[in-house]
Amino acid sequence: MTKLSLSKTDFTINDVKIQFPIDIDSLKKALGDYRHLKKKSNHTYTWDNDGVIAFSKDGIKAENLLIDLNYGNYDYCPEKPFSGNFLFDEQDLFEFYKTNKNQLVKLFKGDDSGAFILNGISVWFNKEDDKITALDISAYEEKIKKPRLPIDEEFKVFEVLWQEWITEINKIVAIDNRYYNLTEGISAEDLEQHSILEEEITIPKALQNFYKIQNVEYDAVTSAFQFLISDWTYDLIPFEDIREEWNSIQDLQFDEDDLPELEIDLEKIQTNNYANPKWIPFATGRNGDYLLFDADPAEKGKFGQIIELQNESWERNIVADSLEELIQNEIKNLKTGKTEHFDFITGKENQE
Fold first, then answer.
1. How many helices (H) and strands (E) does the chain have?
2. pLDDT digits 0-9 by tens, 266-320
3. What is the extent of the structural domain holding 10?
4. Of 110, 139, 168, which residue constitutes the final position of a domain?
5. Closest residue by Cα to residue 51 from 75, 69, 73
């Protein structure tokens, strides 16, 4: 029976020490003869009776191992799935997984499975329909933690609001939920790379400071950090994706002759097209609707008022006088039990 062990000191296969990148000869020593396929861009080495596959770019050293549990029917897949033992920090990996999902680390944008990290090695869980079909094992390079940016004095209130919002969400959504996508606040590098949307149009200081405290990772489905407006939810947009969403809105601007009639409170909201370029999206309904930070209000409007832009109806409504008020409203929703918009995230929809 094949035995893998990853500890704080070493990684072994059948008691043979393994280091990444792995010499193919070391794997042969640990597992015996293999089936080799030379592909256009890499080599695969398959141990059919052990449920193990190695991937190598140069045919000399393997960059990662795949432990096949039920991965698929590719030509490099083993004849039998892995049926051996895998010890992770001296515990059965799959038992450890059940009780330590909060230790999973996302390895890439949109990663909804996560990996355990130990001794400079990652064990990533490939999942289909919420079932683990394979383990991908490779070297892990620790990300350098970037220093937190100071919050401008006038926006210190966001620190309190973020903490209160997180506290309330944590009562509903477990931090190991796949849609719990909270991350560290943005760095100086993030600000430099992503703050300018176009010449003379910059993400406002209020939003910059809001994201200095916390950011979110992209998820293709939804986010635990969302705002309920009437009966529709808007997911918080990752800071680095704001420019892309802003560009999508600009692409919908009309030629003057093609403009439909606008029903807008023009005393407070200033636009003569689909959207004012100084409306900055920070939350998306994922259907063309957005929540926008208004950096160019009309005479009776307020700088920073929050506009709900509805794509199909062309409605543009003020839903909060400020970002602070919007967050306070969402916290109030959570505290008063108005949490139906989390049913999908927590799986309640599937239980009914």
1. 9, 24
2. 899 998 888 999 999 999 999 999 999 999 999 999 999 999 999 887 789 999 9
3. 3-139
4. 139
5. 69
Residue in the block written with tokens 């141990």 = 47
* 232: β partners: 229
Q: Is the pLDDT of residue 205 over 70?
A: yes
CA distances from 250 to 6, 244, 283 (A): 51, 10, 16
First to last CA, the chain: 43
Residue 313, pLDDT score: 79
Does the pLDDT at position 255 exceed 70?
A: no
Helix, strand, coil: what percent of the chain each, to 5?
25, 30, 45
Residue 352 covered by a domain: no
HSE-CB at 294 with a 13 A cutoff on CA atoms is 25
Backbone phi, psi, residue 256, to 5°: -55, -40
* Torsional sign, CA 65, 70, 71, 77: positive
Structure tokens at 316: 């543009």
Together in a domain, 171 and 88:
no
- Residue at 348 is within a domain: no
Which residues, in sequence order, are CB contacts of 98 under 8 Å at separation 6+? none
Residue 220 DSSP label: S
DSSP state of 324: H
Q: Are 315 and 304 in contact (CB under 8 A)?
A: no
Residues 176 and 31 in one domain: no
3-state SS track over 20-76: CCEEHHHHHHHHCCCEEEECCCCEEEEECCCCEEEEECCCCEECEEEEECCCCCCCC
Cα–Cα distances in Å, from 117 out to 81, 91, 103, 140, 232? 24, 14, 8, 7, 37
The helix/strand/coil state of 221 is: coil
Provide the residue count of the chain: 352
Tell me the C-alpha distance between 151 and 209, whole Å: 6
